[in-house]
Amino acid sequence: MNSGGRPGAVPAASIVEVRSCSVLFVDLVGYSRQPDDEQALMKGLLNDRVNRALEGILPDRRLALDTGDGVALGFSEGPAAALAAAIRLVRLLQPHAAELPVRMGLHAGPVRQVLDINQRPNLIGDAMNVGHRIMDFAPPGQLLASEDFLVLHARMAGARSTLFHSLGPSADKHGRVHELHRLELAASDRPGPRAAVSRPRPLTHAQVMAIEALLERHVGPAARSHLRRQIELGLDSAALVEALSHALPAGRIRQRFLAEALRSVHPALPNQALVASAH
Fold it and tell me: Which long-range contacts (CB under 8 A, 24 or more apart) does 130-134 make?
């Protein structure tokens, strides 16, 4: 059927909104060369780990899209949520590196949310194209981020992330140059022989109970399961508090939780430092 517009035109009603978005692309390396049964197992395992990595982020603030040989994730509330989810996913996939090799790419920029042929939300735009290309640069087992993503993250967080190592500029197949940065977690978080690095100091029982009580004010009994899931990922105290905060609505409620929770694990920090950490 033709609505009278030009051929191939998108009906105006299907265009929902334009928004700034952080995107995480995940690719199953060698997926298309596997037999059907193996593909089903790989996708099932990846979907399970992605869903676990997204726990704590409200459904209306993220969108998961199947890309055939992987997944694309859009985060509408800022780069901190995207980075926290990416780190959780990296750690969740590490035990399966042999049977589930993946590469990932992080980017941020404007996207257009539209409805697809089945009237389900979809994301299109330059940020999606660039996010896919950033992922394409990554070798198996690595996560790369664009300069745009890290600049936006630094602007929101108040400081440049120290988790990334600059790889310099690289040109994609279209000749477009991208500044690439590789995620480098603590050596103890990566497989293979590495120099000894101490793991984050575990929270005391009193600190865990204090954080749970703060979170319970807003999410009720679900606070305990939220907290346990994040503790299992081995995050340091600041990253754990940041991850938990995404179970709360953005704004003053979240900022107050961040400040109070950080004070409970870092009582020596002055109020100015707590405010900076909360942003």
Answer: 130/176, 130/178, 131/23, 131/24, 131/25, 131/72, 131/105, 131/106, 131/107, 132/25, 132/72, 132/105, 133/105, 133/172, 133/176, 133/178, 134/25, 134/105, 134/106, 134/107, 134/178, 134/180
Nearest residue to 31 via CA among 40, 23, 39 = 39
Q: Report yes or no: 233 and 88 within 8 Å, Cβ to Cβ.
A: yes
Distances in whole angstroms, Cα of residue 256 to Cα of each of 50, 128, 250, 263: 28, 33, 10, 11
Distance CA 48, CA 119 (A): 25
Q: Which of 54, 55, 53, 61 is nearest to 219 (CA)?
A: 55
The residue behind tokens 């590490």 is: 94
pLDDT in tens, the chain (279 residues): 443 444 444 454 455 566 789 999 999 999 999 999 899 989 999 999 999 999 888 888 899 999 999 999 999 878 989 999 999 999 999 988 888 999 999 999 999 989 888 888 889 999 999 999 999 999 999 999 999 999 999 888 778 888 999 999 999 888 999 999 999 986 444 443 333 333 445 678 888 888 888 888 888 888 887 787 677 655 667 777 777 777 777 667 877 887 888 887 765 444 433 333 334
How many residues are recorded in the chain? Answer: 279
> Contact at 8 Å (CB) between 228 and 247?
no
Question: Residue 230 CB: number of other CB atoms within 10 A?
Answer: 22
Amino acid at 192: G
Q: What's the CA gap between 70 and 223, in Å, rounded?
A: 31
